[in-house]
Amino acid sequence: xxxxxxxxxxxxxxxxxxxxxxxxxxxxxxxxxxxxxxxxxxxxxxxxxxxxxxxxxxxxxxxxxxxxxxxxxxxxxxxxxxxxxxxxxxxxxxxxxxxxxxxxxxxxxxxxxxxxxxxxxxxxxxxxxxxxxxxxxxxxxxxxxxxxxxxxxxxxxxxxxxxxxxxxxxxxxxxxxxxxxxxx
Length: 184
Description:
By secondary structure, the chain is of the alpha+beta class. The chain has helices spanning 4-16, 21-33, 85-97, 167-181, and strands at 45-54, 60-66, 72-78, 102-104, 111-117, 126-137, 149-156. A hairpin with a 5-residue loop joins β2 and β3 (72-78). The protein contains 4 helices and 7 strands, in the order ααβββαββββα. The longest helix is centred in the last third of the chain and has 15 residues, at 167-181.
C-alpha cells in the first residue's frame, strides 16, 4: 500500500503538532478512505504537495502569484499519482520557479492544509489535501515565471502581511519563525 509512508508521516506530524489534530485526522481519514488519493482524477479531492521555499539564510520565502487563484501562495501542485509527496513538492517548486538546487530541510511534513478549489469549466469544485515541506534554495536565487504564475517574489518572512493575509501562509510563517528560533 503506497499510502503507508504518508500515514506514518501524518502520525509523526500529529505528535509534533497536537494542536492541529482536526486537520491531521481529516487528511488521514481521506487517505484511508480513498485508494486513489494521489490521483487528480478523484473528483471529491486529492493530495497535493507544496513547498515553503526559503532562501539561503531563511529570511525570505518564495511565493507565486497564482494564475488560476489570483493570489500569493506557496509553490506546489498535484501529486499526479506519485505517493512520494516530498518528491512532488521538490518537482513542483523546480518547475514553477526555474530554480534547480533545492534541498529539503527535513523529510517530515512542515504543514498541512485542506482547502476548497472552486468549480471551473470541466472541473467540479473539490478539495486539495495539501502536504507541505520546508525547502531551501541552495544555489542562485534568480527565478523564472512559469505559465502557472503571474509573478514570483522572494518575500521577507517578517513582511508577509504586506502581500498576503492567507491564514495558512501566516501559519507557516509562525512555524518557520519558531523553527528558526530553535536553530533550524
